[in-house]
């Protein structure tokens, strides 16, 4: 199970909106940025990601929760998103190379196959996105921020 801590932004009618901050580095070493994953995290348009999770227990904004998703569903999602367009690109290029024998038409076939693979992946992802095994679940709930009181003597 892949696990990550997130902060509650809001909770309404059994749906929690959570904010996840990406870590610098992959977590496998103490270098934190020496292998290039920190740079990849900064390349994206957002440094924070939001997701919605169904949970019946009321949550307060600022509360921390641990969410998890099974490795199998995460790998299947990654294969769908990355390998389907790649397979379409290769198959389209190979098909057009066989039929037309020119490099220009091979490139056109590869681009067409990649686009078709992307559209197929998008359609398949829409079919599986609501399945329970593809949804993140709440594993642990931290104390709400208002529950901690510090007394000074």
Automatic annotation (TrEMBL):
TM spans (from-to): 79-98, 104-121
InterPro entries to which the protein is assigned, alphabetical = RseC (IPR026268), SigmaE_reg_RseC_MucC (IPR007359)
Source organism, top-level taxon: Bacteria
Give the Pfam families listed for this entry.
Answer: RseC_MucC (PF04246)
Q: Which UniProt keywords apply?
A: Membrane, Transmembrane, Transmembrane helix
Q: Which residues form a coiled coil?
A: none
Q: Which NCBIfam families match?
A: PRK10862.1
Q: What is this protein called?
A: SoxR-reducing system protein RseC
The organism of origin for this protein: Yersinia nurmii
What high-level taxonomic lineage is stated for the organism?
Bacteria, Pseudomonadati, Pseudomonadota, Gammaproteobacteria, Enterobacterales
Question: What would be the name of the gene that encodes this protein?
Answer: rseC
């Amino acid at each position: 199970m892949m696990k990550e801590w997130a902060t509650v932004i809001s909770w309404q009618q059994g749906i929690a909106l959570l904010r996840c901050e990406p870590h610098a580095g992959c977590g496998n070493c103490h270098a934190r940025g020496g292998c290039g994953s920190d740079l990849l995290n900064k390349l994206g348009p957002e440094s924070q990601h939001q997701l919605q999770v169904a949970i019946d227990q009321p949550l307060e904004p600022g509360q921390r929760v641990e969410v998890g998703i099974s490795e199998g569903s995460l790998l299947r999602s990654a294969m769908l998103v990355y390998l389907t367009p790649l397979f379409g690109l290769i198959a389209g290029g190979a098909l057009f190379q066989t039929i037309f024998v020119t490099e220009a038409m091979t490139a056109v076939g590869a681009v067409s196959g990649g686009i078709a693979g992307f559209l197929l992946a998008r359609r398949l992802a829409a079919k599986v996105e609501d399945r329970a095994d593809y949804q993140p679940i709440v594993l642990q709930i931290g104390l709400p921020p208002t529950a901690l009181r510090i007394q000074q003597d």
